[in-house]
Amino acid sequence: MYYLLRRILFVFDPEKVHYFTMDSLSLLLRLPPLRWLFNSLFLCNDTGLETDVFGLKFKNPVGLAAGFDKNARYINELSYCGFGFIEIGTLTPKAQAGNPKVRLFRLKEDHGIINRMGFNNEGVEMAIHHLKKARKNGVIVGGNIGKNKVTPNEKAVDDYLICFERLFDFVDYFVVNVSSPNTPNLRALQEKEPLEHLLNVLVSKNNTYDNPKPILLKIAPDLSNTQLDDIVDLFSSTHIDGLIATNTTISRENLVTDVKVVKGIGAGGLSGRPVKNRSTEVIRYITNKSHGKIPIIGVGGIHSEEDAIEKLKAGATLIQMYTGFIYEGPAVIKRINKAIIEYRRNK
């Protein structure tokens, strides 16, 4: 059924149809019978899925990655799709339009997406407005934070700190995003010295609260092994709580889509199946380097039960979807959760 719906939706502009679909779902789920139907079709309520990590209890380990619900508008609706946690953002202190449109492209043959959205969001205050109204339905909510495009890197810490302080009472964990390829010079913050400073500032602020929240770092798949070694060292020295591996890639290797089409699309981060193997490699490398001591949320190219189990075997504790959710629909979440139950029972 979903694949027929996908064929229709994929006729239209990706960004416009995203909001049309979510707004339509929001209207439909106001009806109790449809909420019951979604619960029946997509929720997998099994205590064997409960996962304790970062000091939080996740009802299941399958989450929605940041970027899908940038402004925390659709937490209620997405909770009915079977996710155990939802990550909002990336949020910046001030609202910003992002990069010029058109900025979102499907690579159907590769089951991938290229985006150069540029942290488009309504700002942290509007997200808080939506979070106050969200029911959540037992779903953990993470806050993915970044800096405004106009903020120079030497003042980036201020932007991250504003988002952290304002969101603190409304999310369950934080993600520091310095790995998006779509904000100029943002990835320079992944270098060891500026990243260490940024994380230390946030951890110090976090420790002033009576109930500190988990802080995670989201990293790019394009880092070298030397840079990954630095990340492992920073995890220990800054005392953050975990990593998300990985963000989108700037690589265009091994694509089936015609080279001319890809070049015509231009810059942006590539997600979906093309990034699956590299994402898993990064997870495995960090796990081995840290002797399994770093909690990791694995994301990148998860489109099936096998993809999810592969991430767990590589060392991920939780997983996230985005592009796979778009291509496969909500039913894949329940299938993955059932596969995880079997995987855990047979370990």
Can you give a write-up of this model?
The protein is of the alpha/beta class. It has a single domain (2-346), classed as Aldolase class I (TIM Barrel, Alpha-Beta Barrel), CATH 3.20.20.70. 41% of the residues lie in helices and 16% in strands. It has helices at residues 2-9, 14-28, 32-42, 75-79, 124-133, 156-167, 192-206, 225-238, 259-265, 276-289, 305-314, 323-328, 331-346, and strands at 51-53, 56-58, 62-64, 85-91, 104-107, 112-115, 140-145, 173-177, 215-219, 242-245, 269-272, 296-299, 318-321.
Main features:
alpha/beta, TIM Barrel, 3-stranded antiparallel β-sheet, 13 helices, 41% helix, 16% strand, globular
Please count the helical segments. 13
Taking all Cα atoms into account, the compactness measure Rg is 19 Å
Q: What is the residue-averaged pLDDT?
A: 97
Q: In terms of per-residue confidence, which ranges show pLDDT below 50 for 5 or more consecutive residues?
A: none
Class derived from helix and strand content: alpha/beta
Proportion of helical residues: 40-55%
Q: What fold name goes in the CATH topology slot?
A: TIM Barrel
Number of strands: 13
Strand content: 15-25%
List the helices and strands and how they pair.
Layout: H1 2-9, H2 14-28, H3 32-42, E1 51-53, E2 56-58, E3 62-64, H4 75-79, E4 85-91, E5 104-107, E6 112-115, H5 124-133, E7 140-145, H6 156-167, E8 173-177, H7 192-206, E9 215-219, H8 225-238, E10 242-245, H9 259-265, E11 269-272, H10 276-289, E12 296-299, H11 305-314, E13 318-321, H12 323-328, H13 331-346
Parallel strand pairs: 3-4, 3-13, 4-7, 7-8, 8-9, 9-10, 10-12, 12-13
Antiparallel strand pairs: 1-2, 5-6, 6-11
Helix pairs in contact: 6-7, 7-8, 8-10, 10-11, 11-13
